[in-house]
Amino acid sequence: MAKRKNLVLIEDGQIPDSVASLLKDTSLYSRYQNLKAYLDEEYTYEPADYRRLVAFIERQVYDQVLAIAHLQYYLMNLTGDWGDTGEQQVKISFCRSLLGLGPEIPLTEAHAAEFYSQVDTAVYTYGFEGLTPDTGKSLFESKVIQLLGIQFKADPGPKVTQILRFLGSKTCLVSRPFWKGFAYIYGDAIHRTKAEYSIWYMVKERVRCGSYVMSNVATVTEHNICMREEALATVFYQKWIQAFEPRRIFHFVPNADEFSRMSMAIKYHTLGLFGVKTAEELEKVKKEFLADMRETVLHHELAHGITKDYLFPFERMAIAQGIDSYHKIATYEGLIEFLSDFAPPTHDLHGPMWNMAEIAKTDRKRAERMFYMYFSDVFFYDTEDEHMYDYSDMMCLIMIRYVNQDLSVDFDKMKADMVYRGLDEAQDKPSL
Hints:
Elements: E1 5-6, H1 17-23, H2 27-31, H3 35-42, E2 43-44, H4 47-79, H5 87-99, H6 109-125, H7 133-142, E3 145-147, E4 150-152, H8 156-167, E5 171-178, E6 181-194, E7 197-208, E8 218-221, E9 224-228, H9 229-240, H10 258-273, H11 279-284, H12 286-311, H13 314-327, H14 331-341, H15 352-360, H16 364-377, H17 389-400, H18 411-417, H19 423-428
Parallel strand pairs: 1-2, 7-9
Antiparallel strand pairs: 3-4, 5-6, 6-7, 8-9
């Protein structure tokens, strides 16, 4: 047996070319579980240096995402372009990220002061002063993640994550287009697969761009889905725990409009199905509550693949999306969201409503609380999100169809309606 060569993994705080070339050799990725398995077979090395190598790459990704996140925030503030979610939500998201504040921690004036201090300092740290809206956005567009001498200009998240996971890192990089560049979340994630989808459960977000607001529970690019645990927890605390605050209880708000009263009634019925009457009791079932929420959101995102890949011809989807974009309306968007919710089983995938009907076969109580939790989620009439009203019209009208007089849910009827037939068949036998 030939003597194995010694390999230096970190030298003078840098990655040697010999190690970088191994990480760029994609043939190793299919032959070995990770880089360590290959090194154990071919080389000798210092185990402590391997840990330093992983930490070095992780730090490189973190530092670059942090710089891009600060640049995005600076340009939003400079131009007033805060995106569809608005200034407040972006600031809350970026503040919590920079200060490492969990969703259970209420924001205070002291937090705000520290946040503004950090973003002001970053302007000079990164040399943003003097940028104009045009030069700033050009700089943002040119900012790409770089590792091992490679610039990841297209689809950076999955490609960088592949390197990280081959190293044995538990982290993941999520990216999506923003302006003409990319916005990112970087953090610790658990990986699973479903059909042709890679699912990343982001359990700890180390750093994120502010455009990833806390109400954005999941993000999807092609066949990669990121489920954000911190965002799920934020919804739990800000929507459901706060429902027990006296000022939120509709009985105590005589001047509340009818939509607010209806929204609170749906919330309280949902909470009643969990058997809780106080915030403290809800905290005790947090694990089950988040599991129900997570499962429904995941099936909704997976079902987008059904509507996109199987139910509609590509040309029709492109035309409809173009009409929505041109007229600044969201009818098409609402329709696609609705059809994803009621998507029938297709290629090992199905939508959340079908999933609830399947659960009802063995656990009707859980299926009904998931149904009403989602009813609350799609009820946008008590919010300022007017672009979601078309979606609420469709979802609420159809969901009411399956609610019995005693508020139980007719899952058999709902499942019978979720039949997809091709365009030719549908002319004679229309389905839902």
